[in-house]
Amino acid sequence: MVDAQDEENEKKHKEEVDKYSISDQMKLLDGIMQKGVSYFNIKEEKDRLEAELLLAESWMAKP
Asked: What are 24-62's pLDDT values in tens digits?
C-alpha cells in the first residue's frame, strides 16, 4: 500500500513539475514576443506549450 502511495505521489509531483516548467517557458516566450525577437515562430511554440499545459492540468485534476 505504501508503495502505491509513493508511486502516486511521485506521479503527482512529476505532473506539477511539468506544469510549472511549461508555465515558465510560456512566460519566457511572452517576454520574447514583447521585445519583438523572432528567430523562430514564437507564437507557434507558445500555442504548443499552452496545449501541453492544459494536458498537464487535466492530469493533475484526475483523482
From this structure: 888 888 877 777 765 667 778 888 888 988 888 888 787
Q: What is the pLDDT of residues 11-34, one digit of tens each?
A: 888 888 888 888 888 888 887 777
Please enumerate in sequence order all residues whose Cβ is within 8 A of that of 16, keeping only pairs 6 or more positions apart, or say none. Answer: 60
| Cα within 13 Å of Cα(16), Cβ side | 6
pTM of the model: 0.51
DSSP state of 59: H
- In whole angstroms, give the CA distance from residue 25 to residue 44: 13
Which cell numbers in the block locate residue 21? 516548467
Q: Let me know the angle formed at the C-alpha of 15 by 12 and 17, rounded to the nearest 5 degrees.
A: 110
